[in-house]
Structure formats: structure tokens, C-alpha cells
Write a structure and sequence with these properties.
- The structure holds 2 protein chains of 2 kinds.
- By secondary structure, chain A is α+β, with helices and mostly antiparallel strands.
- In chain A, 22% of the residues lie in helices and 43% in strands.
- By secondary structure, chain B is an alpha+beta fold.
- Chain B has 2 domains: 41-146, Rieske [2Fe-2S] iron-sulphur domain (Rieske Iron-sulfur Protein, 3-layer Sandwich), CATH 2.102.10; 168-433, Naphthalene 1,2-dioxygenase Alpha Subunit, Chain A, domain 1 (Alpha-Beta Complex).
- Helices cover 34% and strands 25% of the residues of chain B.
- In chain B, the strands form 5 sheets. Chain B has a 9-stranded antiparallel β-sheet, sandwiched between helices. A 4-stranded antiparallel β-sheet of chain B has the order 5-4-3-6, with no helix packed on it.
- The chains are: A alpha+beta, B alpha+beta.
- At the A-B interface, strand 2 and helix 3 of A face strand 12, helix 9, helix 10, strand 18 and helix 14 of B.
Chain lengths: 160, 441
């Protein structure tokens, strides 16, 4: 079933909100946008089609994401002392209905991260799979395909 | 290195090391020449170049090299550099080609690096083109596979690979022995992380069993706050168990043994005791795997292989092997204060597919720069490197636990909290860095 224009726009606004919550470090609210069965995937190679057949930079279900978020509020998370700041610059947002009744929101994201005056850039093509069920709209999966996914990266703890 | 070059060996004693071993460009340059251009270094796995013509771009110390298999099945390790005008011959991670053709003037070479063709040969005297030393692609003089793991050395002479691996070869044996078919295959791409710190920091930390409770405290606390997660089946439970294990008490770490060897190699006992990451498991996948292994080796030999339960096994100077989790990491020094660590995963041929998936997930959780564990390690390496600068104390202590080191033959045994891994690594460092030794080679 194809979604109406208004629902597709709702999905796009959800993705914009998701990015905004990350930038504002409202991680608990960020996590609440994800469905119980949601997963987050950041491939480590350009051709990678599945998180099951190769190493990934991140592949976490909601349980592990919640552990990641809980860790971010710890005073002894060294890689976040002092905390990093991010800006998610979103462009080319497009939503389309999927065959199974969901919505895929595709976006280009330029993520600028600063910590201790040290600036890093991540450029990504993101795909958010969104599910709309009655009044509930939630993220079922988020795939973050970094342009330099196979490069050596320095450590980071916040979800991109 | 001329014999008049500086003697760096006084910078590391059995009790302390001078901070310049981590920061000084002169020390770094000497390490590249005396260690990374002479020692045996891991360059790749045979399964990455299984067919004639397969090549893999890799490094041997500071040099970019091509590991390539010839028509006769032999492996060569060639400098990625055309002998004519110096252009890189290949680019990209890997490929397949019977001949290497330089993009600049189309000089072509076979898999052994021998010149096979060039435009306008009449422009050169006949003898000139037959000077193999100058006209062929330069190659590493020594390349040798140990049970599929390919090592090479820039030095034509020196200890044999078997001598070099003395004590630590069992880690490779155990990884390969775990495969019912007696062979492993590199799978699943690679993970790369970078830190602004010296290469030795990673190797020292890999068997530092006092740091986990502190460096990884935030992940331990987060895992402890979710009482259910650790018992979840599959990968999620495994990753949570991983975090919890880092929270062992010092006395528990001390119960683990560290095994050290004169060559600078170190092996530590495993510390995973629960769930699917424990050595003894009771699940259908493991049962199928055990049956396959017992089918190949007999039940008692299979038990013997699985009873070897070590975690990180360090092959000095720059490799860490985890046989149980089918992983190998290569530590590549890029500058005194810049290092890249690449992690590779291996499938056990003849074992259930699910085991490969589990180990891929384990390594994703453990070796990604975004890992709940590794990100904090990398941060601490960078803090150390920054700490080494400035006007603070010049000497760094490495003596923890020295009173309890036990030596028998060339094998050391120490409790888990000992800094013996650092002492042994610097022991090897001193030997390879000594002027006398480098002049002799």
C-alpha cells in the first residue's frame, strides 16, 4: 500500500527530528524514536550488502543502542570527556513507500563533529526505514553508509 | 644504518622507558630500519590470494607491497613500484591479473616481478634489459607461509620464521586446528581504526589486564544496569557479556596467566566465562561444530584443541591474534604519533556458517573505532601521546609485578596484572634496535 503525501512528509520530519536530537545530545529522546525491533547499521565496506556477511563499523539492535546511550551519560566515558558536538547537515531528503507498506527516507548527511577544538567530517548516505502504525510513527532501521567507510577512523562513541 | 648511528637501547631498561621512544622521529626512523625492515612481519593470508594472478595490496614495514600468486602457485611479495620511473604499479585493495602493467609506459611484469615486455626495447642496449636486479620489480627476499599466514622480511638473512615465532606459533596453530577442514579463510572485509599515538601503545595495552576496569568502566556500568541483556541468546547477549567481563576484580585478573617469550611475544588466558563467548558452550551450533571437529580429529584431540583458551596473542612487533574469536589485527606505524590498526576475520573451513556470523559480530563490537570498548582505548592512547610531550617526567615506569615474574627456559609466566608484556616487548625492541645487531645484519 502506497503512503499518502502527508505521511511521507511526516516520515521526512521524523528523520529531521532524529538528526536534531543527536545534535542536541538528547539521546534518550533519540532512542525513543526507534522501534523495539529496530537496528542501526554502519557498513565498513562500500559494497557491503548485509551486516551478516561482513564486519561493520556499527551493527546494533535497540538493546545495544540503549547500552550505548546509557554509556554516554557516564562521567567516565573517556572518549566523550569533554563531550563531542555535532551538526547533521541534511540534504536530498526523499521519502518513498516500500513494497511491505513501510517508508524509506533517503538523505545525504554531512556530519561535522568537534571535540576539544578538533573537527572531523563524516559524509553519509542514510536510509531510514520508517513504520507508520495507527498513530505511531517510528524508525525500524537506520543505515549510515559513510563515504569513507573503509578508511581508518579515530574512535567515537556517539551514534552518527 | 651506518654503525655510527645513535644507540637507542639505553632508552628502555627492565624497569622504565624514556618517553622519547614514543615521540622522537629519530627513534621512529630507526625502528623502521632496524625492526620493520628486518623482522618477520605478517603481510596477508593465503586465502586472500588463492588463485594464480590474485594480488593483494599490503605493507611490509614502511613499504607498500603487492602479495601475488604466480602460475606455479608460488607467492611473491613485490614492491608496488615500477623500476622504470617509480610509478605505483597497482592501486586498490586487491585484484586479479596475470601480468602487472605499469600505467605510465606499459612496462609489464610477471607475478615474480620479472620484466616481460616494454615499448621500444631497441632504445636500450641488449644487456641493459637483462640486468634483472635493476629492471625487475624489487621483491622481498624472504616470504614464507606458516599454515596459510604469510610472513615476510626485507632482510635476506636473519632468524628463520620458525625461530622468530618461537613460543607464539601455537596461536596460529590453534586458530587453524579449530577448523574441521584444517584450513581457515579470510572473510568479511576489514575494520580499520586510527589513533594519534605511537604504535607500541596498542601492543602494550592489548595485554594490560589492569586497564579494562578503568578504561572501560562506562561500558561495564551500562551493561550491569541491564540485568536481562547478558542472558539474551545470540549476539546481543554476547556483546553484553563482553562488557561485563571487563569488570572483573583485580584479584580475578590476577588469576589469569600471562605467558611470555624471549622474542617479545606474549599470550594471555581468556577471561570470558559466560554464555556463547565462554570456551565451553551448550548450544546446537556448538554441538554441530564439535561433531565436525571430532569427525576430523577424533574426540579427544578435538577437546584438546578447544581447551586452549587464550585471548590476545601478540606476535611481536605488530600483530595480535585471537584464535578463539578467529581474528587477527595488524598494527601499522605511520608516524611517531600516528598508527593504524586493521582487523581481519577468519572463517573456520568445515564449521557451521553461524559461527562465522558470530565472530564477525564479535569483532564488529570489539574492533570498530565506534566500538563500546575500543573507542575508549584509542582515547587513552591519544592522551598518553599528548602526555609524553611537554616538560613532565621523562621516564615511564614499567615495573608492575616484576617481583613475581617466573622464567623457565625462554618462557615466562606471570600473574595477569603484571606488566611483563611491556618488559618483554622492550626486551625484543632493545635487541633489534642495538647498533651492533643492526650492523651485523
Amino acid at each position: 500500500m502506497s503512503q499518502g503525501r502527508e505521511t511521507l512528509n511526516q516520515a521526512i520530519r521524523l528523520v529531521e527530528r532524529e538528526a536534531r536530537l543527536l545534535d542536541e545530545r538528547r539521546f534518550d529522546e533519540w532512542l525513543s524514536l526507534f522501534a523495539d525491533d529496530a537496528w542501526y547499521w554502519m557498513p565498513a565496506s562500500w559494497e557491503q550488502r548485509s551486516p551478516d556477511d561482513a564486519l561493520s563499523l556499527l551493527y546494533e539492535d535497540r538493546r545495544l543502542l540503549s547500552l550505548r546511550v546509557r554509556r554516554l551519560s557516564s562521567p567516565v566515558i573517556h572518549v566523550e570527556q569533554p563531550p563531542s558536538r555535532t551538526h547533521h547537515h541534511l540534504s536530498a531528503l526523499a521519502a518513498e513507500s516500500t513494497a511491505d507498506g513501510g517508508i524509506d527516507v533517503s538523505s545525504l548527511q554531512l556530519i561535522v563533529m568537534v571535540r576539544e577544538a578538533d573537527q572531523r567530517l563524516f559524509s553519509a548516505r542514510c536510509v531510514h526505514r520508517v513504520r507508520v502504525n495507527q498513530e505511531v510513527i517510528e524508525i525500524v532501521s537506520k543505515t549510515v553508509r559513510l563515504l569513507d567507510c573503509d578508511a581508518g577512523h579515530r574512535g567515537f562513541a556517539v551514534p552518527l | 644504518m651506518p654503525p655510527t648511528s645513535p644507540d637507542f637501547t639505553a632508552l628502555a631498561t627492565a624497569q622504565r622507558v624514556h618517553r622519547s621512544v614514543y615521540t622522537d622521529p629519530a627513534v621512529f626512523a630507526a625502528e623502521q630500519e632496524r625492526i620493520f625492515r628486518r623482522a618477520w612481519l605478517y603481510v596477508g593470508h593465503e586465502s586472500q590470494v588463492s588463485a594464480a594472478g590474485d594480488w593483494l595490496l599490503t605493507r611490509l614495514g614502511p613499504d607498500e607491497m603487492i602479495l601475488i600468486r604466480g602460475d606455479d602457485g608460488a607467492l611473491s611479495l613485490l614492491h608496488n613500484r615500477c623500476p622504470h620511473r617509480g610509478s605505483r604499479l597497482v592501486s586498490g585493495e586487491r585484484g586479479h591479473s596475470r601480468h602487472l602493467v605499469c600505467p605510465y609506459h606499459a612496462w609489464s611484469f610477471d607475478a615474480a616481478g620479472a620484466l616481460t615486455g616494454l615499448p621500444l626495447p631497441e632504445g636500450y642496449p641488449e644487456a641493459y634489459l637483462h640486468d634483472a636486479g635493476a629492471r625487475n620489480v624489487a621483491r622481498a627476499p624472504r616470504v614464507q607461509s606458516y599454515r596459510g599466514f604469510v610472513f615476510a622480511s626485507h632482510a635476506a638473512e636473519g632468524p628463520s620464521l620458525a625461530e622468530f615465532l618461537q613460543g607464539i606459533a601455537f596461536a596460529i596453530d590453534n586458530l587453524v586446528d579449530r577448523a574441521p577442514a584444517g584450513r581457515v579463510t579470510q572473510v568479511g572485509g576489514a575494520l580499520r581504526m586510527v589513533y594519534r599515538g605511537n604504535w607500541k601503545l596498542f601492543m602494550e595495552n592489548a595485554v594490560d589486564l589492569v586497564h579494562p576496569g578503568f578504561v572501560h568502566a562506562s561500558a561495564v556500568a551500562a551493561a550491569r544496569s541491564d540485568r536481562v541483556a547478558a542472558s539474551l541468546p545470540g549476539v546481543t547477549g554476547q556483546v553484553v557479556q563482553m562488557q561485563l567481563a571487563n569488570g572483573l576484580r583485580p584479584a580475578e585478573w590476577d588469576e589469569l596467566s600471562i605467558h611470555g617469550f624471549a622474542g617479545g611475544h606474549v599470550s594471555m588466558d581468556s577471561f570470558y566465562r559466560q554464555g556463547v563467548i565462554a570456551a565451553q558452550r551448550d548450544d546446537p551450533v556448538f554441538t554441530r561444530y564439535f561433531d565436525a571437529l571430532a569427525g576430523a580429529h577424533g574426540e579427544s584431540r578435538a577437546r584438546e584443541i578447544l581447551a586452549i583458551d587464550r585471548f590476545n596473542n601478540l606476535v611481536w612487533p605488530n600483530v595480535s591474534i585471537n584464535s578463539r574469536f578467529q581474528a587477527l589485527r595488524v598494527v601499522q606505524p605511520l608516524a611517531p604519533d600516528l598508527t593504524q590498526v586493521t582487523s581481519w576475520c577468519f572463517a573456520l573451513d568445515g564449521a557451521p556458517e553461524e559461527m562465522t556470523r558470530l565472530t564477525l559480530r564479535f569483532l564488529t563490537a570489539a574492533a570498530s573505532p565506534a566500538s563500546l570498548v575500543a573507542a575508549d582505548d584509542l582515547e587513552v592512547f591519544e592522551r598518553c601521546q599528548r602526555g609524553f610531550g611537554g616538560q613532565g617526567p621523562e621516564w615511564l615506569d614499567i615495573s608492575r609485578g616484576a617481583l613475581r615474574d617466573r622464567e623457565s627456559g625462554s618462557h615466562w609466566l606471570a600473574p595477569g596484572t603484571s606488566e611483563i608484556p611491556i618488559r618483554l616487548q622492550f626486551g625484543a625492541w632493545r635487541r633489534w634496535m642495538s647498533v651492533e645487531n643492526s650492523a651485523a645484519s
